[in-house]
Amino acid sequence: MKPVIIKLSIADTVVHVNANHIVYFYPKKTDDGKLVTVLHLEKNIVVEVLESMSEIDVLIEAGSL
Fold first, then answer.
1. How many domains does the chain have?
2. What's the CATH number where 26 sits?
3. pLDDT for 13-49, tens place per residue?
């Protein structure tokens, strides 16, 4: 399977993530009321990104074409 690299925002920084390493993700409301998406990656790496679940789905679809 070829890598599907997507750009995501983590705390004012843009990072590149290989979507093939995303195990699962879900929305979460932070203490200050913001909605973030929690990504669980391989090797027990967990990150919170600013993109919504639907935005991540669109990025993965576009990258896999």
1. 1
2. 2.40.50
3. 999 999 999 999 999 999 999 999 999 999 999 999 9
